Amino acid sequence: MAVISYTEEHVKLLARLMRAEAEGEGPKGMLMVGNVGVNRVKGNCLDFKKIRNLRQMVFQSPGGFEATQKGYFYQRARESDIALARRTIQGERFWPANFSLWFFRPGGECPPTWFNQENSGRFKNHCFFQPSAGDCPSVY
What we know:
Number of helices: 5
Strand content: 5-15%
Structural class: alpha+beta
């Protein structure tokens, strides 16, 4: 059962975002980007209080994703990408992104916090950050 509401258009948008942000990180990295996106829709907290669906999440500005803001959100969603997006919409979570609302690719080590959010871990080149349960209980 899906953990957020969605349309087929939303699935394809999420799949495109996952590909644009993490194709080089492989399927697991792409799944983690999907986790962050789904968490932002579920969250209704912090920078994501007005995010109600995947379309709003993908195109959020400011505070959204580099892919949509810097022009590399142009590749279509492949069937394999769509399948990964569906997995995250159905609630599959992957550490360290399982409760994360942010990720980024630093030049070196992951900082312990980012915008006052705790570092939950690193996967390949990306560091993930999650809010406290008190700041964002609906993510948990």
